[in-house]
Each structure stands twice: as C-alpha cells, then as structure tokens.
User: Fold these one by one.
Assistant:
Number 1:
Amino acid sequence: MSDPNSPLPSAPPPAPPFGAPTAPFPPVTPPAAPGSVLAPPAPIDPPAAPPAVALAPPAPPMPTVPTGSPPASHPPAPPYLTAPAGPPLIPPAGPVPPRPAGSGSGRAALMGAVAGAVVAALVAGLLVLAVGRDDDGVARATPVTAPGRPSNTIAGEPLDIQALLEKVRPSVVTIETDSNFRRSQSEAAGSGIVLDAEGLVLTNAHVIDGATGITVSFADGRTAPAQLVGSFPDDDVALVKARVEEPTTPAELGSSDALQVGDDVVAIGNALNLGAQPSVTKGIVSAKDRSIAAQGIQLDQLIQTDAAINPGNSGGPLVNAAGQVVGVNTAIIQDSQNVGFSLAIDAIRPLIEDLKAGRGAVDGNTAFLGVSTTNLDEQPADVLRTAGVEVDSGAFVVDVQIGSAADIAGLREGDVITRIDSIDVTTKEQVGEVIRERSPGDEIRIEYQRAGELGTTSATLGRRGG
C-alpha cells in the first residue's frame, strides 16, 4: 500500500503539437512598456471578440495586395518588418510654460508627478453636497456650487446626460479613412466635431495621417467625402471639410480655462467603431495643464480625465455639463486605469484659426513622399541585425505607400534614409521637415542604406491632398 503522505508524481510536460510551424524570424514587436499613446482610430473591421462575447463572426482576412516588381537596381525588401508601437511615456518633469498665441508648434517641458496635487485638488473641489430636509421631512442631498462660481448645468441638474446628448450628438461625426501603405492597407475610423454649417470638422491630426481618402458620417445618417483643410501634426490638430449640400449643426465651444478639477465631463465619440451611434462615457476633470510625450510628439496644456477614452474616440469632444466642447479627446496611457487626455479647446483655438486661414503646417498642397519611418533606436536590435543595418543614424523605413513618390523611386521597407539632397538625415522628424520645405513636383535625391549597401535614387514629390 502506498504512503498517503507521499507526494504525487509530477506530470511530464506536454509535448509540442506535431508539425508545429516555426518562424524564420523572431517576432518584431518592441518591448511592452507602459506609455502614452495617441488613441488610435478604430479598425473598420475589428478582429473577433474574445469567446465570452464572440457574438459576431470574425472579420475576413485582408486580401493580399500585389506590390509589383521593384526596379532591377532595387532588390526586394525583407518581409519581416513591422512598424513599432509608440514610444513609452516620458515621465512628466517640470512646469509647462504657456503656448504663444497663434503658434502651430508650441513646446513645453514635461510636468512633474502630481498625484498628491490631484488628490488635494479633489478634496478642495467646488461642488459639495448640502444636506437639508424637504417639507415632508425627508433628508436629501442638494448640489451646491461654491460662491462666485457659475453653475454649468442643463435642466437644473449637475449633469443631465440625456439633455446633454440631445444638444451635442448632432455635432459629433465619424471619420473613416483609407490607407494604401503596403503592410497596413486598411480602413480605420475616428471621430470629429462639426464647427460650422458648411461641413468644417475638427479632429486629431493622427486620425487622418496617411489617409488616401476621408469620409465623414453625420448623426442624421448622411455621409460625405471630405478633404484635408490643414493640420498641425506636432499639436495633433486637423481640420477637414466635408462636401455637404445641406447645412450641418455646429457644436458650441466652451472654455477649458474655466474648468476646475472635479468638474463633471463627458467624452463622446466612435469608440472601437461599435456602431452608428456614438459611445458616451462620464467622468471628471482629474487634472489640468498636463504634458505628455506620445509617438514622437509632445503635447501640452492637456485636460486629464477619468472618462473612458478608447481607440476611435480620437477627435471626438470632451464636453462640460452645459454641453459645451471643452476638449478634443486625443491620448491614453497604456496599461492604466482611467487616465485619458484631451486637447484643451482654449489652447487650440489659435491653431484652428490658423488652419482656417490656410496657415497649417500640412495641407492638401503639401509635398508628399509616402514613407512611414522610425528612428533606429525604436527598432529592436534583432530587426536591425536581420535587415543588415550598418549605420548609426538615419530614418528607418517601416512602410511605403503604394503608388507614392517613394514607391516609384524604389524605396522599400528596411531601407535607412541617410541623406536628402544636401541634408544629412539622422532622425525620422528630419524627413518630414525636409519634405515640408519642398513643393509638389519637386525632385529630390535620396541616399539610403539597404542590407549594408549604399544606394541613391531620385523621387518626384506628390501632393498630400491627392
């Protein structure tokens, strides 16, 4: 008889399934790290939901797009490259100086950690509850606004969601974009805010970045093609104009400067592209004047909120209790709990006026090369090694738009752009800076490294507006 106290024999580890495939290259994804990212547009055909909520069939696979044969002088690119996710959040540090009025690329140092300050601000919040008794003797809590502070309410309540939606919903739109980049050829959806009766829509620059086609869907069911009016990519602000035949309903813009920590706010937008009606999430102002670094740009004078912001919410409004737009939802912190950011409407008003006047950093007449690049230090070492990269600086090409100037010139994924005309390129930002100084139709000379060998090509720049 065996000893009942003896340990049970351990089971042998399961054998791998027969014929399991092996990958010729390791996964090319950057290290997972908490960070600030621009809330991406939601895919038009999202992947199937987890089994617990898998009510819809999975999306069909994306059809293969023939890429054609590159010129004989350009060997084919390796097929294993993937674009990295945005860089990790740079920890806030230092005060934020005010942005000069009308500046399209204002910058500020990052702010210090403020968890304690947020708690203190919430404790000192201006909305308190005074407990009294009605005529029937029942004790009830009544909202009381602090002295000297006007009450932003609808229908006499601190936050009447139904009344708020009735006011705001006609001015919230879905923005769908097409992209012809080789490895990301797809459709995506974000949100926008109607600014006038003629179809002018405010959104984030990253919602329409790289788009080859833009469509705006309105709350009344209308859809219309749209074109880029202009954008400030470094401030994540853009305007598009929908070609409409009937008047559109503009949103009422409020004052973000008048907000205080603890105020009720509501985020509205096409979260996760779930349906025709926008998603609505409620929260409070968690902090003001935040600064973050996300995906190569620094954003400042942000409103932090615990109202849920998800992919597809980008470009949608953050509204106060009076149904006025006080922010544009733009960024989230990965792996966090209820930490989202919106561009403060008062901070971007000068940028909106600049875009209306045709003074954007990018517009439909801006020169366009058609590449997506990263810095070399943003790619894992094994990717650089496999691609044969032997330079220390440059712009690493992760994607090329089909039919663009870069595609016609023969640039491919895995190339490292090192020089454009007489300008040495050491970072991805320099590529954009150089191209924005040129005009559509200009010819540029590009030097690059591919698989350890140097190459040179010429490209005739296209027009961003198509």
Number 2:
Amino acid sequence: MNGSLLGRRVFAVAIASMMLMLMLAACTGQPASNEAAATPAAAVPVAPAATATTAVVSGHVPVVGGGAPSIVILKPATATALPAQPSKPAMDQVSLTFSPAVMFVRTGQPAEFRNSDDVLHNVRVREEATKEGTFNVALPTGGAYEHTFARDGFYDVGCDIHPGMAAVVVAASTPYAVLADAQGNYSIADVPPGAYAVTVYAGTQTIERQVEVTAGAFQLDIAS
C-alpha cells in the first residue's frame, strides 16, 4: 500500500469533514459542534485485560499532523486461522458526511454502506493503489448496499452528488488493525502470541517491523 497516498487521503478526509461542519454551521446560524467534527481517532477504546494465552499489544506510534490518524496493522508472519469478524462493519451517510470517516473491513467478509440522510446519495469506491473502480451505487433514503472487498488495501469513498463527502476503507486480512489516537497511542486486544509483521501508516510514512508477540501486556512502540 502507498503510505504517501494514504497520508494525503486521510488528511484530506479530516480537512473535508471540518470544512463541511463549518459550512453547515454558517448555513444554520449555529456554531459548529466540536463533538460532531471529531475524528474517529479521538480516543482509543479501553482494551480488555490480557488473558494467560493472548496479548494486549499497545504502545505509541508517530503522530500525523492536522488531525489525521495513524493506522497500525498486525499481520501474522505465517498463515494461520483467524477469527471471523464479530459483526458486519457499516459506513453510513448522515448530515452529508460518511461515518465513520475511516472504516476497517476484513478482506473476504461483507461490509455495508447505508444512507440515513433524507436526500439521495451514491457511494463511489475506488482502490487507491490501482485507481480502479470497485463499485458505484445509488442509495436512496434508507437504502443499503453490501460489498465484500476481495483484496487488502486502501479504498477511497466518495459521493458524486455531494463532492465534499469523502472517507477511506481499510481492507485487511487480519483482525488486528486499529487507529491510533491523537497522541499516537493505540491498543489491540486478544492477539495470539507469535511472529507478526507490523505496519504503521503515519501520514506519508510507512513503517514496517517484525516482532515476536508474547502473552500478557505487550508493549510495542514504533518510532519513525
């Protein structure tokens, strides 16, 4: 995956979301809500305690300026059976905004795209690396569309009817993928011990490491 392109794309999504909130505030006469403008990377969920047989991998990665989140992906170094996704990820269209702005999906498992606005939208998805169109569907109010991503990678999401709308889909064959928070902290729970390839996408940087994860609380800091 192209880290430079990803950094620019995620940064553009963050800026577009903030500009949209300011435009909506100007039209309604109401101040923009900090809560509505916050990115999904505003906080890292509290991970459950590690068990005797799994690890909670956590640490710090480089911070991206401008509010764009860094992405951390752990992929087993050897082929292994991985748990299925616990629920179907979904990206909704609400108030002329894609939510979430960055969505993780499992390669080969279904994801859903919805329209909860009272206006017609479409969802146009394009693979970042190849620039090939993945799908482009119209979604009326209350509509939904299911898609299974066949390849790992980053996918640009847009609406042709409302060009200011933008989001990113991260398709990964591993369930161990998260956004870091605004301070660069992250946490991944229920990781089986073993050898992993670690990839961090931080703006224009793509950082790769090999690591042997052990059970319990496993500290993994990644520097530039």
Number 3:
Amino acid sequence: MKEMGQKLLDNAFIILAILLVIFASAKLVAHYNSDSEQTTRTDVKVLVYSKTGCSYCRLAEELLEKNNIPYEVVELTNNKDLIIKLVKQTGQTTVPYVFVNDEFIGGYQNLHALNESGGL
C-alpha cells in the first residue's frame, strides 16, 4: 500500500511538472507574439499623398499599417497646386503618390511589389 501511495505521489509531481512546463511555454509564446505584433518600424519614413475615397490610397495605408510602418498622409482632394507639382515631379497622374525615405517609389502597386520583394 505504501508503494502505491508513493507511486501516486510521484505521478502527481510528474503531472504537475508537465503542466508547469506547458503553462510556461504558453506564456512565452503569448509574450513573443504580443512583442512581435507591436514592433513598429522606425527606420523607414513613408509619405503618402492621397485623395478621399481612393481605394488604392486606402490599400496603401492598410499595407503600411499591417507591417507596422508609420506613415504620414497628405490629403490632395482640394489641393490642385500640389497635384500639379507632384505630376511634374514624378510623371505620375494617379494617386496615391508614395515616397519612402524621401524617394518616390510610385503608387500602391509599386508599394505592394516593394513589400513583396522584402524591400520595404
């Protein structure tokens, strides 16, 4: 009977140890995931010139948000002078105008391609 009681006690300690390992692992994974989700890129400066209601402008912003890349938006809807300046500067006539580290990269499609290639 004493042997059986000792076996039960040993098994209880093993089960407790396994549960502690599982719990510690789960906390570690949760901590890692929360840290990685909140990491914000600070080495990239992005400026998006957009117009209200533009779906490609919104897609560009969503892509940047998804990748935790901070960006600034300049609204072009009622700013014809700035639109003319951007067309002359870039040769592009559609929005969004996306600049990364002060370099014009194009519109949403270019931003998406840059992200897919790992260049963002």
Number 4:
Amino acid sequence: MSAARRGTKTVEKPAGDAVESQALADEQAALREAAEAKAAEGEEAEAKAAEGEEAEERDERRKWYVIHTYSGYENKVKMNLEHRIDSMGVRDKIYQVVIPTEEEIEIKDGQRRTVQRKVFPGYVLVEMIMGDDSWYVVRNTPGVTGFVGAGTRPTALEDSEVKRILKQMKMEAPKVKVTFSRGERVKVVDGPFTDFIGVVDDINPEKGKVRVLVSFFGRETPVELDFLQVARIT
C-alpha cells in the first residue's frame, strides 16, 4: 500500500470518530431532554394533585364573615372567641379569627418605631361554616355586638376581598405614618438646615421623605429631608 493511500486512511478515520462522537452526544442530549421533560411533567402532575386534594378537602361552606366589636376590644374579642371555640368543641366549624393589621412606622418625639395598625378598627374576620351553633358561639362572645350583613342575616365576604386583605397583612415593607400635610409650616431639627422654618411642599411616604421649601439667601429653596429631620410647629 502506498504512502499516499496510508495517508488518506489516516485522515478519514478521525472524521468517522467525530461523526460517531457527535451522534453519541446528540443521543445523550436527547435522553437528557426527555428525562427533564418527564420530570417536569411529574412535578406538574404532583402540583395539580396537591391542588386537587386541597380543593377536595376544603369544605365549600367555609366562608369569611365580619363581626363588629366594641372599639378597642378587638384583641380581647379574638382571645375570648378562640377560647370559646375550643371549650365548646366547634373547631370543625369555626376555623380562623383574624384582626386585619399592617405594620406602620411611627415617628414620635424624634424616634422611629414600628407599630401594628388595625386596618379596620372595630371589626374582626372569622372563617366559619355558618349554622345555628357556630352563629351562637360567635354572636354571644363578650365584646361582639353583631355580624355585618343585611338585616339580621350575616353576609359572607367575597373570596377576592379576603385575598386582598390577607395579602395586605403580609406586605413586607411597613408604611410610614404621615403626620405632615402639604402647605404646613415645619421646623428643621437636624442637618445643615437646623432651625430653619419652612413649608411642606411634597411628601413621599414610601421613602419616608418630605420636601420642604426653606428661605435661603432671600429665595425659596426646596430641600429633601427625612421625616425625622423635621418637626411640626405647634
């Protein structure tokens, strides 16, 4: 066999190996894709099954109702009602007692603190199956003045409304309680403009900032300050 022919074979052999390697790689990639697709289908099926079980387990008669309480007695009513639910054995008919609240940053005496603010003062939410016995337990709890509804018949909340309220309670960023109003005169108590008197021009509760117009060198100048840097003039 001539050197030329030997050289030709030497060139052709790697090409064949490359084709085989590429075919093997393509096959492995296809197998991986098939496995991933199967796994995804399995996870989706499990998720749907879990949703189905949850929907099946949840009694359709479970609804959210609103009860009215004496002002300032919301926490006391919640505690009393939960105690009655357990002592009277109706945990299978009355499921949750919720006071809608949200975190709020309050600035007082130059100090910033986070407090729980009641979204609907004087009202408490109850998830329950409405019936004579469950109605009796809730209605006769000390501090409860009645159910919210048309006439004497309690009215259940819409699911969308309940979801909105519960979502609002889970919001991560607390709101800043605004104690200023536009056009109000304030005094700067911290920073380079300390002791300046100005007028509130804009308020940004999300950032906890207030823009104040102060007189500087004979002209009004807008200055952005933190809520802690200004105080109301009383």
